[in-house]
Each structure stands twice: as structure tokens, then as C-alpha cells.
């Protein structure tokens, strides 16, 4: 599994340059480039910084990497992706809104049963 593919994908989804992601993740542009191209490994620290920049967990980045590997043409196959992989592709403000909506739906469901 290539974690760099997921990092590249998430960065592009947000419209960020490598320099912008590097700034958000407290690293250098060359580190981002090397990660995306699979030219270097990753440390737990850089993964934490990247996850924070993307507004997700490290495990969600790995899940997305796995899904991207399974589905070559993500635009046609996004319907088959797990909800976690879809969720982290959204901007954080939409994630927060959906999170609150899901909590509300669960509370309503639990009251009815």
C-alpha cells in the first residue's frame, strides 16, 4: 500500500499545493513531494501532522490508501468506498455538519426504539 497516493489525493481534493500542505503539517515541501512519490518512508510524527492538517485520523489516511489501491478509477468507484474514506475527502466544516447530523439521527433513532 502506498500512503503517498492517499496524501496526494487528499491534498488535491483540498486544492492545496505541496507547499501549503507542508506548512500545515510543519514539514518541508520536499518531504511532501518525497512522501507522495514514494521516495521516502514516513514517521509516526509526520503522519500525525498530516492527519491534523487533513482533519482526520492516521487510520483514515491508511484506509483511503487501501481503497485507492483497490479502485484505480476513483471517480467511477467512489460509491463502493467505505464511508470513512468518503468522509475524509470532505472539507472539515462539512465533516462537522455531517457529524452533528449523524448524532442527531442516532439520538432520534434511539428514542424511537
What brief labels describe this structure?
113 residues; mainly alpha
Structural class: mainly alpha
Order of helices and strands: HHHHHHHH
Q: What is the mean predicted local confidence, pLDDT?
A: 86
Annotation, overall tally of beta strands: 0
Q: Between the first and last Cα atoms, what is the distance in angstroms?
A: 42 Å
CATH class: Mainly Alpha
Keywords: DNA-binding
InterPro entries: Cro/C1-type_HTH (IPR001387), Lambda_DNA-bd_dom_sf (IPR010982)
Protein name: Helix-turn-helix transcriptional regulator
Domain HTH cro/C1-type: 7-61
Textual characterization of the structure:
The structure is a single chain. The chain is mainly α. The chain has one domain: lambda repressor-like DNA-binding domains (434 Repressor (Amino-terminal Domain)), CATH 1.10.260.40. The chain is 71% helix and 0% strand. Helix 1 (3-13) crosses helix 3 (29-36), helix 1 packs across helix 5 and helix 2 crosses helix 3 (29-36). The mean pLDDT is 86. It comes from Neisseria lisongii. Keywords: DNA-binding.
Give a brief outline of the structure.
This is Helix-turn-helix transcriptional regulator. InterPro entries: Cro/C1-type_HTH (IPR001387), Lambda_DNA-bd_dom_sf (IPR010982). The chain has a single domain (3-112), classed as 434 Repressor (Amino-terminal Domain).
Topology (SSEs and partners):
Elements: H1 3-13, H2 18-24, H3 29-36, H4 44-54, H5 58-70, H6 74-77, H7 83-87, H8 92-112
Helix pairs in contact: 1-3, 1-5, 2-3
